[in-house]
Design goal:
Blueprint: E1 2-6, H1 17-21, E2 28-30, H2 44-55, E3 63-65, H3 71-75, H4 80-95, E4 101-104, E5 116-120, E6 126-130, H5 132-137, H6 140-148, H7 160-163, H8 166-172, H9 178-199, E7 202-205, H10 224-233, E8 239-244, H11 245-248, H12 255-262, E9 266-271, E10 273-276, E11 282-285, H13 296-305, E12 311-314, H14 334-353
Parallel strand pairs: 1-2, 1-12, 3-4, 4-7, 7-8, 8-9, 9-12
Antiparallel strand pairs: 5-6, 6-11, 10-11
Helix pairs in contact: 4-9, 12-13, 13-14
């Protein structure tokens, strides 16, 4: 298990590499060029900048999260081939810098979705919160305005250039089905995976967050059955998974069973916990198994059972000790550092027993 920490880059992350360096066990930063619009070609010069910054602190840049997929590819428009070609060339650029894994998603329009970025919890902390009834009632444009005015930092999946033409994008998705999305995903994979093999970069799709349709848009990477279908679209080792326990945990998935079934195709793990409620709401919790609905202990035990050698990072944490005043929503320093120590503690205990 290789522990990493997501870092949004100089000038775009109030958490510094010096602070990350002080978290025991972190070997690398998970990064991206967050100012690059989906579908654009990444330059070697920009990647070299990130590599230099990370190497100054002894970190590798093995994992990119994400090289975003342009909406035209998801929609299957005639323009998709040029964006796919840019994606291929970006993979070739990344390979020159030793990148091993690219995390991406195939969610229409929205990336992760929440209705409250700073929901107060009984212990005084606050966290990302999803209120299902509000999603059913709210206009998506209203949600975007609410999210945008609550943060002054870039939010992956909520980039202004992606959302500027939201009304037009929703119109393009009228009548669009899950089967349409499956077909377009297969087309993308058939083009990309041979290049990934050439570059020895493992592609790791991220589950949909939340793992059910919203605003009438299909979601397909949501459960064990669908993950199995995905892996068979292009059944090669470089076509693999990011298993996000929080995204899959937004509904009642048996995540250890998913790991059991597909452990040899998991290239990246996002380990976090969420507390689900009977009405469909959920909130990010601490990483402790007893604090949420995901049995993080069993997740780590199952990974250990198969001697997981891939990359791991703690995912969304609560905002604690007042960091909501400055932290990116879901991506503070303190609770993610605590999450690393919890995950590493479980792993060390299992190593000690064996």
């Amino acid at each position: 298990m290789k522990m990493t920490f997501r870092w949004y880059g100089e000038g775009n992350d109030k958490i510094t590499l010096d602070q990350i360096k002080q978290i025991p066990g972190v070997e690398g930063v998970v990064w991206s060029l967050h100012d690059m619009p989906a579908g654009s070609l990444w330059s070697p010069e920009r990647v070299a900048e990130v590599e230099k910054q990370a190497q100054e602190y002894g970190f590798h840049i093995d994992v990119v999260e994400s090289v975003n997929v342009h909406e035209d590819i998801k929609l299957g428009l005639d323009t998709r081939d040029q964006y796919i070609e840019n994606y291929k060339q970006t993979l070739r650029v990344l390979a020159k810098f030793g990148v091993k894994v690219v995390c991406y998603n195939f969610m229409p329009v929205f990336d992760w979705t929440r209705t409250n970025l700073y929901k107060k919890m009984p212990d005084g902390s606050n966290a990302l919160f999803f209120e299902k009834s509000k999603i059913n009632e709210i206009d998506p444009i209203e949600l975007i305005e609410t999210i945008s005015k609550n943060t002054d930092v870039t939010m992956p999946g909520w980039e202004p250039e992606r959302l500027a033409n939201l009304k037009q994008t929703f119109k393009q998705y009228e009548g669009f089905t899950a089967e349409d999305l499956w077909k377009n995903l297969q087309y993308f994979l058939e083009q990309i995976i041979p290049v990934a093999e050439e570059c020895n970069i493992k592609m790791a799709i991220h589950p949909d967050d939340p793992a059910f349709p919203i605003f009438g848009l299909p979601r397909i990477i949501i459960n064990k059955e669908n993950i199995g279908r995905f892996l068979k679209l292009v059944d090669r080792p470089h076509n693999g998974l990011t298993v996000c326990t929080g995204s899959l945990g937004s509904i009642d998935n048996d995540i250890p069973a998913i790991i059991e079934s597909y452990h040899d195709r998991i290239h990246f793990m996002h380990i976090r916990n969420v507390k689900r409620f009977e009405n469909g709401d959920f909130i990010e919790s601490s990483h402790r198994a007893c604090d949420g609905s995901v049995d993080i202990v069993e997740v780590v035990k199952t990974l250990h059972k198969y001697d997981y050698q891939g990359y791991v990072r703690p995912d969304h944490g609560r905002h604690i000790w007042g960091e909501e005043k400055w932290a990116r929503p879901g991506y503070g320093l303190y609770d993610r550092a605590l999450g690393i120590m919890y995950i590493n503690g479980l792993w060390d205990t299992l190593n000690h027993k064996s």
